[in-house]
Design goal:
Keywords: Lyase. By secondary structure, the chain is α/β, with parallel strands linked by helices. The protein contains two helices and eight strands.
């Protein structure tokens, strides 16, 4: 049997990404933190780990893989994530009835915020 242990995000500025993703997901870093790698884990042990790897890499659009983050209050979460340094991404092919918004973290790694409010299909 396989399970997802960690999703790895490559980054240039490990400290900035650590601050963003711990606040965005309410995760905590496993100590000690290395100079070039940190594993973030959920505070309640629910969900996969997210690891940050200080290994600059070429940004490819559209990304081959991204995170879908489910939100009970999509508008509030988007506003909170923007206050942490994320930005909304305009995609002209996004359907008008889409339940997701595309965002990117401070280094341009894209993710979606999906409306998972009660009654929505997530």
């Amino acid at each position: 049997m396989l399970t997802v242990g960690s999703i790895v995000i490559r980054c240039s500025d490990l400290e900035r990404q650590l601050l963003f993703w711990t606040a965005a997901l309410d995760y905590e870093p496993r100590l000690p933190i290395d100079d070039d790698f940190v594993l973030l884990r959920p505070r309640g042990d629910t969900g996969p780990n997210v690891s940050l790897d200080a290994m600059p890499s070429e940004r490819v659009l559209p990304p081959r893989i991204h995170l879908d983050l489910y939100a009970d209050d999509q508008a509030a979460e988007v506003e909170r994530l923007e206050s942490l340094g994320a930005q909304l991404v305009h995609w002209p092919k996004r359907p008008p009835d889409a339940d997701y918004l595309i965002m990117e973290d401070p280094e341009g790694n894209r993710f979606c915020v999906v409306d998972a409010s009660p009654g929505e299909a997530a």
